[in-house]
Amino acid sequence: MNLNLKSIHSLRCKVCRHDATNLGIIIVVCVECIGIFGKGACKMDTEGLGAIREQVAEILEELVGIAKLGKGKLVVVGASTSEVAGERIGTGGAVEIAAELFAGIDRIRQQYGFDVAFQCCEHLNRALVVERDVLERLGLTEVAAVPVPKAGGSMAAVAYTHLSEPCLAESVQAHAGIDIGETMIGMHLQRVAVPFRPSRRFVGKARVTAAWTRPKLIGGERAVYALPQKNDQNQESHLCQ
Q1: Which of 10, 203, 232, 212 is nearest to 103 (CA)?
Q2: Could you tell me the residue range of the domain that residue 18 belongs to?
Q3: pLDDT tens for residues 60-94?
Q4: How far is CA 202 from CA 101, 178, 199, 206, 208, in A?
Q5: 220 domain residue, yes or no
Q6: Residue 95 lies in a domain
Q7: Contact partners, residue 17, CB within 8 Å, separation at least 6
Q8: What CATH number has the domain bearing residue 99?
């Protein structure tokens, strides 16, 4: 890609959104983020990289409908950018891929108003990147680290640079979740988790699983889980004596 100086200065870093310098034909990243994250090597071509944003947005919007997500709900996202690129998890992470994933997720988040927690990798004990107001509102336990691709993962690292006031929560109990590349988000879901099979089963080359949650059903065979309609005059009463 040939860019003159004027066009270079008009670009924004896909990681931190600051003014950027072009590093190649696929991704634009600023000098500061190269220092923090390293340039890395994205193994996806331009066409494949460009499709990621729409793929994850499609899956998340489908989950929104089945899980009735909106304001006050929390969604946990786990993503292996290595798997998205067709590599084994933990071997080929790329902030370019993470930036596209974040853009698609954040678009749906803004549309429906739910909150998102981005799961770190096992090197940070699968802590989660959240906005500080989410951590405080939910009474979550804060832990101290700054996720980077080699310790936290590219997805968490990019999310940390994009949130207004990012921090790490030790764990969450989310209402729903998306797992891109089998990163094991189940530990951060409320009970009871209900598996969800989205229509689109892959983001890039990573297999996608998802889940929503429901309250436990209690009480046994005599329990009632919904109030009868008011116009039902023939409803029998089975009161406890």
Answers
A1: 203
A2: 5-37
A3: 999 999 999 999 999 999 999 999 999 988 777 79
A4: 13, 11, 9, 5, 5
A5: no
A6: yes
A7: 162
A8: 3.40.50.10360
Give me the helix-helix angle, 46-67 and 95-112, nearest 10°.
30
Contact yes or no for 172/138 (Cβ under 8 A): yes
Q: Which of 76, 91, 14, 20 is nearest to 49 (CA)?
A: 14
CB 35 within 8 A of CB 42: no
Q: Which two tokens stand for residue 161?
A: 């640079």
Whether 169 is covered by a domain: the verdict is yes
Same domain, yes or no: 103 and 168: yes
Q: Give the chain as a DSSP string.
A: ----HHHHHT-B-TTT-SB-EE-SSS-EE-HHHHHHH------S-HHHHHHHHHHHHHHHHHHHHHHT--TT-EEEEEE-HHHHTTS-TTSS--HHHHHHHHHHHHHHHHHH--EEEEEP-GGGTT-EEEEHHHHHHHTPPEE----BTTBB-HHHHHHHHHSSSEEEES---BSEEEEESS---GGGB-SSEEEE--S--EETTEEEEEEEE-PPP-SGGG--SSPPPTT-TTPPP----
With 0-12 / 13-18 / 19 or more C-beta atoms within 10 angstroms meaning exposed / middle / buried, residue 234 is exposed
CA distance 28 to 100: 12
Tens of pLDDT, residue by residue over 37-53, are: 554 556 666 667 889 99
Q: pLDDT grade, residue 24 (50/70/90)?
A: very low
Question: Token pair 């094991």 is at which residue?
Answer: 184
- Report the number of distinct structural domains present in the chain: 2
Q: Give yes or no: residues 62 and 133 share one domain.
A: yes
